Amino acid sequence: MWASEKWKDYECIDTCGGMKLERWGNVILSRPDPQIIWNKKGDEAAWKRADAVYNRSSSGGGAWKYNGRVPDKWVVSYGDLKFNVKTMGFKHTGIFPEQAVNWDYIAQKLKDRPKAKVLNLFAYTGAATMAASAAGSDVCHVDAAKGMVAWAKENAEISGLSGNYIRYIVDDCMKFVEREIRRGKKYDAIIMDPPSYGRGSTGEVWKLEECLWGFVERCAMLLSDDPIFFLINSYTTGLAPTVMKNILKLALPEGKVEADEIGVKVTSSGIYLPCGATARWEA
């Protein structure tokens, strides 16, 4: 498993009974995680310090219960990158801390290629965009959700990156890729974090297991003649890392391909909580 050991503003304190206890800066949150099927607490007292708990509803969805003072939003940092964090619906906070291993990878691969052209698809609130931008790359950030793109701009601004070249696009990623192919556009690195399921603006259905192969094939047409990497992240538990590795190996030119689970270390027990998987291709 790939897991970052560099976090200071984030900590997974404990896990038990379908819930994880996390520290986000100075705020402690308790949120559901379906993969936590064990029922043993490592730090009993810590759970009582949660400032907010997300409780699922039997009818679907859920809601936060606030036990302490939780700001409407607050900032956490990972190195020089800064992120606005909020307690959102569907238990989310606007950032996935396990992705730090990919931010490190992106920064390391791009640092020696100034002005590399990077395409970030399904880019959410822009953490990977900022990692690439901070490394000196020109980034095209694409997401279908207008609110998430606005949030990404906020994160870039508080990270001191608003003066860098970042092109923000609110659009369906599949439609955007097809237009870029027709335009003859090329990118030196491609990043994607596609959802398990979604619907396009005109009702098109996206199912990761059915659509990923064809989408990667199309995106491969956007790689430049001197590409650096192609990175896919997935949260779909049924999509094994080796499956994504195979897709990259078969859809892209010959190169180095690796894949693994990504996750976070649990402080109280020393175990690692899996949070999805990443596959990486390098020229």
Notes on the protein architecture:
With 283 residues, this protein is an alpha/beta fold. The chain contains six helices and 17 strands. A hairpin with a 2-residue loop joins strand 2 and strand 3 (19-24). The model has no long low-confidence stretch (mean pLDDT 95).
Quick description:
By secondary structure, the chain is an alpha/beta fold. The chain is 24% helix and 33% strand. The chain is built from 6 helices and 17 strands.
Low-confidence stretches: none
Mean pLDDT reading: 95
* Largest β-sheet summary: 8 strands, mixed
Helix-residue proportion: 10-25%
Total number of strands:
17
Alpha-beta classification: alpha/beta
First and last CA, distance: 23 Å
Order of helices and strands: EEEEEEEEHEHEHEHEEEHEHEE
Q: What is the count of helical runs?
A: 6
Question: Strand order of the main beta sheet, please?
Answer: 1-16-17-15-12-9-10-11
Rg value? 19 Å
Shape: globular
Strand content: 25-35%
Please outline the helices and strands.
Elements: E1 2-3, E2 10-16, E3 19-24, E4 27-32, E5 52-56, E6 62-66, E7 74-78, E8 81-85, H1 100-110, E9 117-121, H2 127-134, E10 138-143, H3 146-158, E11 166-170, H4 173-183, E12 189-192, E13 197-199, E14 205-207, H5 208-220, E15 229-234, H6 241-251, E16 256-265, E17 272-282
Parallel strand pairs: 1-16, 4-5, 9-10, 9-12, 10-11, 12-15
Antiparallel strand pairs: 2-3, 3-4, 5-6, 7-8, 13-14, 15-17, 16-17
